[in-house]
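Rotation project, supervised by the postdoc (A.L.). Task for the rotation student: set up a whole-complex structure prediction and record inputs and outputs verbatim in this book. Inputs entered:
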Amino acid sequence: MNIPWGNIIVILILGAIFIVSSWFISRKVSTADEYISGNGKLGVAFGTTSLLAFWITGNTIMAAPEAAYGMGVIGAIAYSFLGGVAVVSFSPLGKRIHEIIPNGKTVGDFYKNRFDKKNYFFFMIMLFFYMFGLLMTQGIGGGLLLEQIFDVPYTLAVVLTFVIVIAYATMGGFSSITGIAFFQVMLIFIVVIVVPPLVYFSTGIAPVYTGMAQFAPEKLDLLLPAGILFMFAGAMFAIGEVFMDNTFWQRAYAVRKDKLMSIFGLAGIGWFFVPLATATLAFVAIGTNQAPAEVNQVAPFIAQIYGGNFVSWVFLVGVWSALASTIAAILNALVSLLIHDIYQSINPRADNKKLLRISKILTVVIGILALLISLPKFLTMLQMLIFLGVINAAFVFPIIYGLFWRKLDATVAFIASILAIVVGYFVYFTIGNLQGVVASGWVSFLVCWIGSLVRPADFNWNKLYRVGQSHTSEVERK
Amino acid sequence: MTISLGAFTILIWISILGSALLMLTIFGYFIYELRKKKIW
Amino acid sequence: MTFWITSSIILFLIVVISAFGPLFGLYGEMIHKENEEERK
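Outputs recorded:
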């Protein structure tokens, strides 16, 4: 097999740029708090792009066109809708989080203090399971993409990606990741703005449309049942993913309070439009009846046909940046959880220097672990997301009601999440995968809602308000 | 309900223009916040 | 299929109403009142 040195050099140059900028940023990171959560002063530019970086990943560039290729126009709209709606729905929660847990650091802070121990442990186990699964999908997705479209051997692709990400994520932690995410997201934007028009200028929109009507008229149908189910059941797992994922909680704590709604609003718009723009490339594949070997490669496949070498390099840069930023964000979110929710409760008196050192070691260890697990390529991305979606959906209502409603009782929340996961997976394996997500969401809702009315608690919000005040009181948050 | 050619065209261009506008907005904020030193 | 589509749409609406409800005073609370400090 010929190794495409040109493509590898592009990745190496980009990687070097990321590492150098990370080193530059890391000079101002001196405390463990900054390493895991920044300092609560993230502005609109970096706040929005760090949220965008999470979703605008391989997921967007691979899974959105895949949905469009399989379900047509409604698939593209549904995929964009589910992501956009999820981030926007988190904005009132983010506002409430600032209000009620002003000095929190992770989602664990909320779960531990709002509910009780059994909830906390169950939630943490599920969360680690989910986040590790997500990290794997990104690693595998990235490796497959580089292998199939850019001819980089799979193992080399995975190793290269992880080594570079581990290097820059370790250096400056959260600040580095959010800073670099800005530039990564800008690169992706350029891809999204340049590639689809280039393709459509050379094919024309009307020929694509008539081609679709000829080859696959059902894919122009806006009321395709599979597409509609994907739209709303998908919204359920995307919302669950966002609400549960520590990546979003970290960012909710890290952004400026007065800018929170606009940051989440802008990010929601981005989660809507960027996948939609890449998904439109799949229409060209349908309309011109050209099928890629692997359905999730449809966007880069079309880009290469119509744009030639230059566009495929632009694509490489964008896609790889997207992957790196997501892996880095998940890695940092996992380390933050481990440090803040596990290490600090075992060893509460560890000083800053020690915490910072442990954080860096953990970043490397988890990164290498994820790299090793990603090496055997054994799953597909969208299926894994839906599989984990059953867990995500189960925690939606304990989190929403737990934040806003003092009546939600800890035991009720515990029963709701366990029952939802059990019922959800039962439906998942007997009826269908998206149906499992819907069932899980319904059980979560009914148990939480009815339980709160039958057995109302009277939670004292001050318990949450005091979290983390003792050791961060010197950090003025306004 | 089949989507019409007009709506199809609009969908494609809106997605691209929407992304472009968003990019400009974020970049504008970046410059603005850089000047005010309120990035982090 | 119709059953699952309908139930997923209803569930989606419930989630959105639950998430945005407190913002418009539908249920629960949005603002943490400092004077509750004395309650303890």
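Student's summary: The radius of gyration of chain A is 22 Å.
Supervisor addendum: Confidence is low (pLDDT under 50) at residues 471-478 of chain A.
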